[in-house]
Amino acid sequence: MRLFFAILFCFLPVYLFGQYHNRPAFLTDRSEKTVSGTVRYYDWSINPDYIEFSRDSLGSTRPIPLKSIQKLVIKDGPVYEGLYIGMPYYTKNPIEIGGNVVDHIDSTYFLAELMLDSNPVKLYKLFDKEAKTRFLIAKYDSLVLLEDIHVVINRRELNYNFTDPVFRRTLKTILYECPTLNTNGTNYSEHSLITTLKQYLSFCRIDSKIYLEQKKTDKPILGIGAFVSHWQNTEGKSQVYGITMQVLLPRQFHNLFIMMDVGTTNTAPSSLVKTGLQFGIYGGRYFGRGSIQGKVYTGLSSMFTALDTGVGVSYKKIISAEIHYSPLANTIYDSSIKVLPLANLRAIIPLSR
To answer: From edge to edge, which strands make up the β-sheet containing 149-155?
Structure first.
């Protein structure tokens, strides 16, 4: 059992990939020919090399490289464009003052999500090969990367974090028609950049289409409920019961989550765990595309300390049955004691949708 959970923890990041929905979509190629079909929509958080597209729901799916894509419109969903960009990646090693902050430049095609569309300007969001969020602004025929530089500067044998919000100066230059536009308070985020562009468009009296405001899935879902746990080992048994809070994050179709448990223990006299407050904080994900989904998470708890890893089955992310265990359990307690997984039943009521 200890080996099983150790392997599970090592492969936990694999669950972050491979989750998709089949969504109706329109695909426009570089020759401006548009076809309808179905795309495997992964809610990409890293730039893919291709998309998987089928001309009909029963047809075979084939890979379409990004260099062949001009636009991908997902029905009732986001709009993407295939853009060729020279993407700078900044150095992760400390540099001297005046040193080159760019480690290398990767020129390739990116699947860029259209966040704001208007006649003069467009705002795009994409994820680079390091899964970092980048933004681009297009004005007429010019495409400009909005850079937010974070590097480490070495000075007199001491390291300092250095930040240069180049994007603020870039916005001021590109949006020169609006002399009263103040970009000093603009942050490198979707909402802040769109707010700045809305001020510019309002000054120029230009209508725009803001896709971000139409995305209902871009909000976390908070849920509160209760849990009860049973832990049996050679030294006795324990019951833990309390309240649980779950936050479903907007990425990956609300399948990523953060969870926190706070409870109390009803302990048998010979148990390893003493009566008192118990807590746990975890991060994980649901996987599967139906009402019944698998569930995997790991985190920190007062019972198992680090690497408290759980697996379970959930119905609509509301009711779940789980077991969790830490590969460090026998080290934490006593190698002579047989420490078994903890069984858990959880019910959560979503407070928002």
So the answer is: 95-96, 149-155, 158-164
Residue 13 inside a domain? The answer is: no
For residue range 286-343, what is the model confidence (pLDDT) as tens digits?
Answer: 987 678 899 999 998 887 778 888 999 999 899 999 998 877 766 665 555 566 788 9
State how many domains the chain has.
2
Q: Does the residue 54 lie in any domain?
A: yes
Domain boundary among 216, 235, 256: 216
Q: Which domain holds residue 139?
A: 19-216
Q: Is residue 210 part of a domain?
A: yes
